[in-house]
Amino acid sequence: MPSLIHGIAIRDHKLKSFNNLIPKNVRLALFNVTVIYKLYNKLIVGKRAVKTKDTNLIFDVKSKCHTVGEFTCSVFTCICRHYKNSSFQMSIILLIVSSLLFFEVTDVQAQTGYLPQDEVNALRAIAEELGKRDWNFTLNPCGNNYNWATPNESVMDLYKNIVQYNCSGNVCHVKAITLQGQDLDGVLPPSLAKLPYIKTIDLARNYLNGTIPPEWASTKLEFLSVCVNRLSGRIPTYLGNISSLVYLSLESNMFSGTVPGELGKLVNLVNLILNANNLSGELPMELNNLANLTDLRLTSNNFNGRIPSLESWKQLRKLEIHGSGLEGPIPASISLLSNLEELRISDISGESSLFPNLSSMINMTRLVLRSCNITGRIPDYISHMSNLKHLDLSFNDIVGSIPDLSGLRDLQNMYVTGNSLNGSVPRWLTNKVIAVDLSYNNFSEESVPSYCGGSLNLFRSYTVWNDSNYFTKCLSPCSKEYNSVHINCGGIGATIGDKVYEADENQGGLSKFRQASEHWGFSSTGNVLDVDAYQYKVKNVSSLTMKDFELYTVARLSPHSITYYGRCLANGRYRVTLHFADIVFRDNKSYHSLGRRAFDVYVQGAIKLKSFDIKNEARGVDKAVIRKIKNIHVTNKTLEIRFQYSGNGTTVVPSPGIFGPLISAISMESETKPGKTSTFVVIGGAVIAALCLTLIVVGIAWRRGYIRDKISREKDLRGLDLQTGTVFTYRQIKAATENFADSNKLGEGGFGSVYKAIAIFKEAFDLTQHHILAQFKPISGSTCTSPRGYMAPEYVLRGHLTYKADVYSFGVLLLEIVAGKNNMKYDQSEEFICLADRSPALRPTMSEVLNMLECRIKPDINLITSDDEFKLQELKLKLEEIQSLDIDEQEIMNALKEIAKQLGKEDWNFSLNPCDENPNWSTPGFQNAVNCTCSPDACHVVNISLMRQDLAGVLPPSLAKLPSIKMMSLENNLFSGKVPAELGNLKKLLLLILTANNLTGELPMELNSLTNLTQLRLDSNNFSGKIPNLGNCTRLQMFLLSGVNILKDFDIKNEAGGGVDKAVIKTSKCVVTNGTLEIRFQYAGKALFLTLTFVGVAWKKGYIGNQISRERGMDLKTRVFTYKQIKAATYNFAESNKLGEGGFGSVYKGEQLDGTIIAVKQLSSTSKQGNREFVNEKGMIAGIKHDYMGVVGYMAPEYALWGYLTYKADVYSFGVLALEIVAGKNNMKYRPNDDYVSLLDLAVVLKEKGSLTDLLDPT
Predict the structure, then answer these.
(1) d(CA 556, CA 536)
(2) Which among 1, 458, 647, 1224 is most buried, taking Cβ atoms within 10 Å?
(3) Calpha distance 862→883 (Å, rounded)
(4) Domain of life of the organism in this record (predicted)?
(5) Would you say 1155 and 1111 are in contact if contact means Cβ atoms under 8 Å apart?
(6) Which ranges of 1084-1238 would DSSP assign to H, the alpha helix?
């Protein structure tokens, strides 16, 4: 009778023997009475039924019991009702209960005191400020009644309503206020400061707004928690004045800005919890003063900088940093925290590092190092953490095997998902009853168990090429191919239109692989620490009204990651549709609405949605948001979609553990219609890939009559001038294919093999090109040949002739061959003028064309599939095979080793391939990059960026051993010495930045050999001597050379011959390119020196000259203007009036005195062809009667290229103007590099890449 002993025997131990004096049924009745009495202390409101061990006795309270007397009546009524047939038993029970209640009433009266009126008034003010409307001030706050101290029915109850006090005699004082989970909608009460003895304020899970009131700075608070509210603004600095604070929690609010250094004054602080705010900046150094910290949590913020040094916090037992914004690596000082019991760090960016030294942390119970860029092996000392319960090392780059942890008897969960672990799966893992996730690793296939289910997740734990075993061994071979998969995640089956969503009712788990059917399943990873009963499925808590609500009533949830996969799919292109709706958070004025959920979505391993927030995207809860992801390629019959938590969002709203990815339904649908095939519409590189089948192309070209002349390369290839269609002799074909050499074999099908015959094709190209040019007829009034329809648009439109112009003409020819249509004779409707018009930036060079045809370099393929895709599937597979060949990079490595030594660069890891884009050679977010471009035969370094690294070596002459380098940025270092003359050998160099170093000496004349250079920045160095001649650098757009001492130690008095009031004149030539010239006079302690910034030729461009009077000679009304009139109208051909520039000259806007706007074309003095072209252009423009005549750069291409003028010509001009407005750039003046001739060209390229928004002006 433990309950009876609790109620009676504690007052008199002699009553214990009373148990033996009464019958069993009486003892049971007494037990029930005791239960009922205990229930008195738990009554809150209304009707509650409590069932005791005696199933016949149910105590039903119909109204609140405000007094012990009322409770006694209820108890006695119940007892009388139940034991009315046994007077003896009834008498005994009533006697005992009466005694029991008497003692209790005595105790209550003895403990009752009162609060001073000032504190009662303070509580009234606090209630008003909080919005607390149910405190009953007619009841004594110190009277142990439920209104002021409501006991909780369970430790998990989030509702808390307690005012605690200390009493001395009859006088009591409020010491603690706990009001949790009440949705109070006021502000933090300033009147709290009116309670002089207050030590604790806990207002977690309410709807309070504002900030922490300054009045609190005068209190002696020890415990302050405002977790889960709407507090905003900066964390107040005056919090640092509450020096008595031991516990401070600001979690899950909206605080922003930096953490104030004043918090470092809280030297007594033990717990500091700043999770889930919008805090930013670096953590202040003053926090190192918090030497007593045992609990520090910084999760889900926007901090920057590295994780701070940790040696000052040696008392820490718990450290939590998930998705904080802080960068790695984890500092070495963490090894000093020997008292750590819980270490939780995840989702940090920055440098990679080896596993941190945690060997001193023998008391560790929970270790989480997830997504921390950790490399190397799992250390063996983990096996000595005898108290370890939870181990999570997911999503790193850990290699090697798993150490033997079989001795860790308390280990419950182990996650090593998403690493590069190899070797065998340890047998102790398969025998130990713990949750283990080994998914996404490289274990040996033979060591992986062949069963699925249980708590061992082996999804993608090894690498195989067999489609049927791609995910796990337990999957059976596919019985057929599927073109679609529809899943109602977590829910029952549903039919929406013609789509049948399959049921997904499995409960999931913390380490779960589930094969739902032959063609789909899921893998779930992770559990929530501190929460025992995590729900991996959630149901809606209110009625749903959105369309297709059946898909959203249940959703699958995971605290770490969920992967849904489709298998047995027909290879091809797919569209993924993801259905989301947040059915957990609420949209009312409640703390349930304050949750923030964010996660990432990966499809086929590529991130598609970053920090995806369902509530924000849907603009509310219980609202559907659908995301469609198109053009997903399936090549091995499998498609994976992974939803992954990345440390962002809240984790305790509305209750602990509510976070992580949530998905309602998924569709995977082939974009190829069933029953039909599809073909490649080959654009750019795909055309070239298809042309590896050169025999077919040459045959078509011959048949169409493009190849007619005789060209002989060697004896066995004679006779190609025969006019017999597609007939070749066996000897010719044998010679062209090098006797059908295996190296020339392109592919093999069911009917035979296909070989390349490049000799024939190259000659066919030459003949064809000659044939096309021979057929061009001159335009009337001009003596130059104008192959209209085949001439590159940048030449026709803007007079800009590039080395890629011939590629355009060749491409038009190939397009005619493939399409079977003539470019100029194609139906010229209002919508379509010709077969093609492409930007030169999208074309390869002619040498690259031939190398691609010979499969010597990797084409940049942009495949847009249509309904005939698989007609060329074999060709695509062969191309991928060719592109995957191994590359010999020893020559690059040797050069880079020399360069590293000369630079003083000591952290390059030469055991890693610099062309594999690994973090050592190309660090994301850090100016440390070595980039390559690769072909099947070789890789070449094209970019070296080593900025702001304090490198103190010299500029390496060995850079000349990287002849393919195009960009080199070494600014903001400590390099000394001269610029090596060997840099002049880098003929492909486009950009050279050496700004802000300690370089000295004269600049080498060899820089003049860098003919492709567009940017040269040498400013902020200590050069001397003359500026070198850069006349050959005709493409140079920016030349910065500041800090050149033109006049050093300049003394005016001495220069004037030892006198004052005498003039001294110094002349120095300079170069200007952007219309600006900077002269700086700087005191250097004893001397004045003059520095200039040179960016082009000022005088020659006309920036410096005499003022011209516009008023003179502008009164003529004829159509003939003198040069003086034109010069005046254009403000002396001012740069601000320049409309555009072509190969033959520039066009300027002019304005007559009467306001008439004219266009003036100024011919280039060096272009004889321009004179002839100008005559043609004049005649052409004179014959145009269209109302909307554009200028150079704004003229519609169908008119400029083909002379076809439509009513839409002005639309084109307007479009260019609109483009200039949104981009903030001039169409004709903007050329980011030599591949682009205008802003419009860049827009075309960005559109092809799907990144047109990059064009927008950021201002």
Answers:
(1) 6
(2) 458
(3) 15
(4) Eukaryota
(5) no
(6) 1098-1101, 1123-1129, 1168-1182, 1197-1202, 1209-1223
Q: What percent of the chain has pLDDT over 70?
A: 66
Strands (DSSP E) contained in 752-807 are: 752-755
CB of 201 closer than 8 Å to CB of 225: yes
Q: What backbone torsions phi and psi does residue 33 show, to the nearest 5 degrees?
A: -60, -40
| Pair 734, 740: CB distance under 8 Å | yes
- Run of H or E residues at 496: strand 494-496
Q: State CA 880 to chain mean position distance.
A: 28
- Bond into 654 cis (ω within 30): yes
Cα separation of 938 and 892, whole Å?
A: 10
Q: What's the sign of the alpha-carbon dihedral 1071, 1074, 1079, 1084?
A: negative
Distance CA 391, CA 385 (A): 11
Task: Residue count of the chain, please give it.
Answer: 1259
Q: In Å, how far are 15, 99, 110, 599 from 8, measured between CA atoms?
A: 7, 9, 19, 57
Bridge-based pairing state of the strands 606-612 and 597-603: antiparallel
pLDDT for residue 1203:
59
Please give the backbone phi and psi of residue 697, each rounded to the nearest 5 degrees, phi first: -65, -45
Q: Taking a C-beta distance cutoff of 8 angstroms, is the pair 301, 280 a contact?
A: yes
pLDDT at 1153 over 80: no
Q: How far apart are CA 617 and CA 557, in angstroms?
A: 18
Name the nearest CA neighbour of 766 among 836, 837, 826, 710. Answer: 710
Regarding pTM above 0.70, the answer is: no
How far from the centroid of its chain's Cα atoms is residue 207's Cα? 32
Distances (CA, A) of 835 to 826, 1200, 1245: 7, 16, 18
Find the mean pLDDT for residues 188-213: 97
The reported pLDDT for the residue numbered 916 is 72
| Residue 885: how many other CB atoms lie within 10 Å | 11
Residue 494 in 3-state DSSP? strand
The order of strands in the sheet holding 606-612 is 511-517, 520-525, 561-566, 639-649, 597-603, 606-612
> What type of residue sits at position 798?
R
Q: What is the pLDDT of residue 880?
A: 46
- 24 confidence band (pLDDT: 50, 70, 90): very low
Q: Round to whole Å and give the CA distance between 1039 and 199.
A: 67
**Which strands form 397-400's sheet, in the order they lie side by side?**
353-354, 374-376, 397-400, 420-421
DSSP string over 1243-1254: HHHHHHHT-GGG
Residues 6+ apart with CB under 8 A from 715: none
